[in-house]
């Protein structure tokens, strides 16, 4: 029970990686606030946690909206008494080049992927600091470290996540708050199927592309969750500002 008596917030908690991590947090003893923008979606994951004997609340919120974030933090504190762990994981992707991307699409990708993390940290850091510290894990991407094709706003946003994580770690380390990013390669979730649809490809052939990496397969959400549990827990007590890559060896 590596997260016994901890309270956690997971954004994008109804999606592939978010759901797996919410369940993993609960299995390690954490009380979990499952947050997602899709109406009612977080409730299903909270129900799964409760059915397994854990403690969870479900909150519908858009991470790019400051009032929503303030409500998420306040509701979590009211339900659990504090916040020890945050997994800033909500994210969206647009598979377009700079020429193809509208200014509105750019703003939306940055609003969710970057501003969402800033807003959560703005409102949760004082809560954590008052309680002696905590651990924040932000979802970057392999493409935030090395770039990728036909995803200009996404690659730029994930690069921002990686460096914002370092800046947060510098600012809030003295308050006992560790901040790290987890950077997945291709993971078997709805996002990959959405990408295939945006690119007009068959999901099957799109997913098969991951077979060329050293481990010869894409990742499963639970394999990202396992890394996030470690970063969230005291086992990683001397790790902050790091960019942990979990990608089957895709970044040579
Ligand atoms: P997913 O699409 O299954 O899950 C994303 C979740 O975020 C969804 O439940 C969605 O409703 C939620 N969400 C979207 N916008 C939101 C908003 N404004 N406020 C609150 N929730 C919102 O995708 P997946 O793969 O689980 O993605 C999780 C994170 O992992 C994302 O940040 C993504 O960029 C990142 N990632 C995923 C990779 C993959 O291959 N699946 C690779 C590298 C990074």
Automatic annotation (TrEMBL):
Keywords: Oxidoreductase. InterPro entries: KR_dom, NAD(P)-bd_dom_sf, Sc_DH/Rdtase_CS, SDR_fam. Residues 6-195 form the Ketoreductase domain. Pfam families: adh_short_C2 (PF13561). GO terms for molecular function: oxidoreductase activity. The keyword Chloroplast does not apply. It comes from the Bacteria. Belongs to the short-chain dehydrogenases/reductases (SDR) family. This is Short-chain dehydrogenase. It comes from Leifsonia poae.
């Amino acid at each position: 029970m590596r997260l016994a008596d901890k309270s956690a917030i997971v954004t994008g908690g109804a999606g592939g990686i978010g759901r797996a991590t919410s369940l993993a947090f609960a299995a390690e003893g954490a009380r979990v606030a499952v947050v997602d923008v899709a109406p009612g979606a977080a409730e299903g994951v909270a129900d799964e946690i409760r059915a397994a004997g854990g403690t969870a609340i479900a909150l519908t919120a858009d991470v790019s909206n400051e009032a929503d974030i303030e409500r998420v933090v306040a509701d979590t504190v009211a339900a659990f008494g504090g916040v020890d762990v945050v997994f800033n994981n909500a994210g969206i992707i647009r598979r377009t080049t700079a020429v193809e991307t509208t200014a509105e699409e750019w703003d939306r990708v940055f609003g969710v992927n970057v501003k969402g993390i800033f807003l959560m940290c703005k409102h949760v850091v004082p809560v954590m600091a008052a309680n002696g510290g905590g651990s924040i894990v932000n979802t970057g991407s392999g493409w935030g470290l090395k770039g990728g094709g036909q995803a200009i706003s996404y690659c730029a946003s994930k690069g921002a996540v990686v460096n914002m994580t370092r800046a947060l770690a510098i600012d809030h380390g003295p308050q006992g708050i560790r901040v790290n990013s987890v950077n997945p390669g291709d993971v078997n979730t709805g996002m990959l199927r959405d990408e295939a649809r945006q690119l007009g490809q068959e999901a099957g052939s799109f997913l098969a592309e991951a077979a060329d990496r050293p481990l010869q397969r894409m990742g499963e959400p639970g394999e990202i969750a396992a890394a996030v549990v470690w970063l969230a827990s005291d086992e990683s007590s001397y790790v902050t500002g790091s960019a942990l890559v979990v990608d089957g060896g895709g970044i040579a």
